[in-house]
Design goal:
Layout: H1 11-39, H2 46-50, E1 58-61, E2 67-71, E3 75-76, H3 86-96, H4 108-121, H5 131-139, H6 149-165, H7 168-178, E4 180-182, E5 185-186, H8 188-196, H9 205-213, H10 218-221, H11 227-243, H12 249-255, H13 269-272, H14 276-287, E6 308-311, H15 315-339, H16 346-358, H17 361-365, H18 368-379, H19 382-392, E7 396-403, E8 409-413, H20 441-450, E9 458-460, E10 464-467, E11 473-476, E12 484-486, H21 487-492, H22 496-506, H23 509-519, H24 540-547, E13 555-557, E14 562-566, E15 572-575, H25 576-579, E16 583-585, H26 589-603, E17 620-625, E18 631-637, E19 641-648, H27 663-666, H28 668-680, H29 736-740
Parallel strand pairs: 1-6, 3-5
Antiparallel strand pairs: 1-2, 4-5, 6-14, 7-8, 7-19, 9-12, 10-11, 13-16, 14-15, 17-18, 18-19
Helix pairs in contact: 3-9, 3-11, 5-6, 5-7, 9-11, 11-12, 15-28, 16-18, 16-19, 20-22, 20-23, 20-26
Amino acid sequence: MKKFTLADIPLKPRTLFRAILIGLATAVAFLVIFSIYVLSEGLPSLEELENPKPELATRVLSADGEVIDEFYLKRRTYMPFDSIPRAFINGLIATEDREFYNHWGIHAVRIVKAAVKNVVRGRLSQGASTITQQLARNLYTNIGQERTLSRKIREAVTAIQIERTYTKNEILELYINTVYFGRGAHGLQVAAEMYFNKSPQELSVPECAFLVGILQRPALHENLKNPQASTNRRNVVLYSMMVEGFISEAQYDGFKTVPIVLTQPEETTVEKSIAPHFVEMIRQQLTREDNKALAVVRRFDLFRDGLVIYTTLNSRTQQYANQAVEDHLKQFQKDFQRSWRWEGKEELLNELLDKAIKSRPSYIAANAADRKAIAAKLKKNAEFVDSVKQEATRIQVGFSAVEAGTGEIRAMVGSSIFGKQSRYTLNRVTQIRRQPGSSFKPFVYAAALDKGLSPYTSVESGWLSYKLPTGKTWDVAGSKSGGPMSLATALKFSINTVAARLITDYTTPNEVIRLAKRCGIKTGLMAVPSLALGSGEVSPMEMISAFTVFPNEGMAVEPYAIERIEDRFGNVLYDHAKQGLTISDAMNPRVAKQMTGMMRNVVNGGTASRVRNWFPYEAAGKTGTTNDFADAWFVGFTPQLVAGIWTGFDDQRVKFTGWYGQGGSAAAPIWGRFMQKVYKDPLLQYDAKRRFKGVENIGAGSMNEDGTAAEEEGGVPLENVVPSSPPPDSTKNDDLHMMMHDKNNK
């Protein structure tokens, strides 16, 4: 049968038919224009089209270029077009929009075919969306996601406008950076990491094809619930690439047999978050209104605008810090649990249980009558009670390491619990204030040396009974034998009476406070004699900052965490280098060198000698232990690094039960383990042969035969220490407020 054509119609009827077609086309055009006019409300404005704002994750990078964490509502990291793998682009075009480079935002033929199918099926199922239309839907939320004709019209109109505004490559760039891949990943950069733990540039052709394939239904393929279905979908993409000439038939035959191997989501570096407290500290710094230097950054949304934050933290150094803490606590926590007893502490336990109960959502949501029943039931629940006990007796840690000369924070551990879930928990480096005990003594000694004393000056070490302005006496226990002792020996073994006599007879509390402030102690301190024994409360970061004066020959350096911040286009918003280092002249260089020499003795045979079990190189520092072993400290330094540790418990009524809870055993080993790892890593380039500049060896005596001269155990291995009851508090008296701040080191 002959096929009917328009030429078979006589001339006059043909003209009439053409007129009818033109009329119909005009009517359709009118209807389209009218629909567009009616539906135009809510479409993106010209400004929105020209300045799209996709929600992009802010990346936090370490000094060695690793992504250590992200801030995001939708995990999306922007990539420029030139860095997108060609294989992914080819797979995307071959599968999703073969006519992409030829159409003007919509594909008329596909629309007609889809419309016919929708009419036949009686519902809107076929979308026929081009890549540009999908981009319009992804970029502009006011278009909507519903399957309606009005949404399709808004989508088409916006797509046409996008094509008029952007080049084809720019459209691809926007699409690939905004499309959802599953696993919470928006954009190819994040998807490559989440699925293969690779950068996009490292993806193979089959891996690119897999990522293109899952775009249609991410939930179906993101975890390979049906491996065969995921393989089939990947191979469909590969076949389309072969048909379009992007790969050869031989390549297709080889690629389609490659197995799909995905990385589990929890295995990615970002999800692990090696430095959660450090990252949260940065977030808080960026939101502080009083930080004028970062004011320009606050104009951006940290969770939407795709900033890049370059930090001072070194990922390798941070990993070593985490390992050092974990290795130490592995056995140390067990030793504590064996010695701790809840008997006789019923009041404390009840308070802890009440606090835990009141924080539970079920209790908060209940009425008064139900709350009483909930509380009673939970207190009888052995599992719940054990969990409260376990949390209360968990040894906590605050640790940080800082470059001595610059103040760059290289590592920070704010908790004994690791992982991203701890980001918003208490940061025990910056957010706690605890008495530093004897770790504060270097500032008392430095104030005295500044008055003209020398490391060899002898001071009486026997019992001190000092009359306070209130008329009461402050009693500090000394060695049984008493007698004069050099400052070097007294600091080496942390003799309380010598430090007490320095602040009462050779300098004053106010002079010590002024020196401590110049060094970096910002928290207000009480001008009382017990300050000599560390009665004031400070943060670990303050102590670490203050100790930078010693390796820096008297110059104090303020620690910092942010090097540079860029927007998603690479424009620099903040540069710490332009701010300059915060360095101040805090201490007489002569005094700083003398103190360094004296604290070297603390490590070499003094209360911190356990450090030598791990770290044999140049080092100095000071231990600290507060009353009843509530807090244990060690702040130490090499010529290049200053690091400090606090260990203890969140509730100060929970304490170490014996001498093993002293700074030399509870804190110093973490420092030693950390420095050992850091100095052994050639990539970190720390010089084990470097010595303290201009620091002479300062002789110091040995511990008394009866052992009473030493405040702490001075290097006795932990396994040889038998936990005992705390010794009596030799400083207790009724001197009210002053004595409340007096926690002697034992």
